[in-house]
């Protein structure tokens, strides 16, 4: 209850809107005090050590404070889709996903609901809940908000989208993204990374940091800069996931014609080869035709 007072003048994300979400105002995230979620189900398309064969228990929250122009989850990131649920209901969802065999609870785009999520986790743990919690986010995270999660999150799964402030401004209206993401990642690694990284006997991650980078069409040099920074800064203290699943959503070509195509095989291979050439070993790549809408789940309020 005390943490929810943070929403009276919300600074949970780097936008620092300062709106009173308790009184129904919405800021950059498009959300108020009430938790809104659009899907809670087993998700099979995460990294192998997250989904495994059983699946990851993914809770897709509505709203997003970053708002990338090319967002694949735009149906929910704009706050236009989703169902309001209570903190108690969120805690119940954790148990329902566990009953379905989930390896973990995967909190997708959760940053604007951190106080409520902490209450839900406390409620669940009081009843003996013991699955790892995954914080699956854009990387555009407020450091003080992340510190609230110390001891609650077992696995951080952030994006690191750009090293270029110009690209971050053009596609996400966030020229500060690179510096914010660097600071956020350092806190995530402090909490659960490095020699704290653990896997079970089946290769499922129990604790650690996996950083995702989605290569965008025509942005190979920036992508190389991202991979270089991650490896030179953290080495084997994190895992790097290089993704080729960029999907041009309807209408993207009107404002950003350069993004109105899928990534070519040559572009992706060049980035993977570069990562290998500088020494990256702890990582994941995608093979085959992953850039398809089959990787975008239906947001029909299933499970919420």
Automatic annotation (TrEMBL):
PROSITE patterns cross-referenced by the UniProt entry: RADICAL_SAM (PS51918)
Coiled-coil region: none
Question: Which InterPro entries does the entry link to?
Answer: Aldolase_TIM, MJ0674-like, Pyrv-formate_lyase-activ_prd, rSAM, rSAM_sf
The answer to whether keyword Transmembrane applies is no
The alphabetized UniProt keywords are:
Iron, Iron-sulfur, Metal-binding, S-adenosyl-L-methionine
Q: Where is the Radical SAM core domain?
A: 50-281
List the PANTHER family.
FORMATE LYASE ACTIVATING ENZYME, PUTATIVE (AFU_ORTHOLOGUE AFUA_2G15630)-RELATED
Any idea what this protein is called?
Answer: Radical SAM protein
């Amino acid at each position: 209850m005390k943490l929810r007072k943070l929403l009276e003048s919300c600074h949970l994300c780097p936008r620092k809107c300062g709106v009173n979400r308790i009184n129904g105002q919405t800021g950059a995230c498009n959300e108020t005090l009430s938790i809104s979620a659009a899907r809670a189900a087993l998700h099979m398309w995460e990294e192998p050590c997250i989904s495994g064969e059983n699946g990851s228990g993914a809770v897709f929250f509505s709203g997003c404070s970053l708002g990338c122009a090319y967002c694949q989850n735009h149906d929910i990131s704009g706050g236009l889709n989703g169902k309001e649920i209570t903190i108690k209901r969120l805690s119940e969802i954790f148990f329902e996903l566990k009953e379905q065999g989930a390896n973990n609870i995967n909190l997708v785009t959760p940053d604007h609901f951190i106080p409520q999520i902490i209450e839900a986790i406390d409620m669940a743990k009081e009843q003996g809940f013991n699955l790892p919690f995954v914080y699956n986010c854009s990387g555009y995270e407020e450091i003080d908000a992340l510190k609230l999660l110390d001891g609650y999150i077992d696995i951080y799964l952030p994006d690191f989208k750009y090293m270029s402030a110009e690209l971050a401004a053009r596609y996400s209206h966030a020229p500060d993204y690179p510096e914010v993401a660097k600071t956020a990642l350092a806190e995530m690694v402090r909490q659960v990374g490095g020699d704290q990284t653990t896997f079970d006997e089946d290769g499922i991650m129990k604790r650690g940091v996996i950083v995702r980078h989605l290569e965008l069409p025509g942005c190979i040099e920036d992508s190389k800069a991202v991979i270089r920074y991650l490896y030179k800064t953290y080495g084997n203290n994190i895992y790097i996931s290089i993704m080729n699943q960029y999907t041009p959503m309807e209408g993207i070509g009107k404002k950003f014609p350069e993004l109105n195509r899928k990534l070519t095989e040559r572009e992706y291979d060049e980035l993977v080869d570069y990562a290998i050439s500088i020494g990256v070993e702890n990582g994941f790549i995608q093979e085959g035709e992953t850039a398809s809408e089959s990787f975008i789940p239906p947001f029909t309020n299933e499970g919420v």
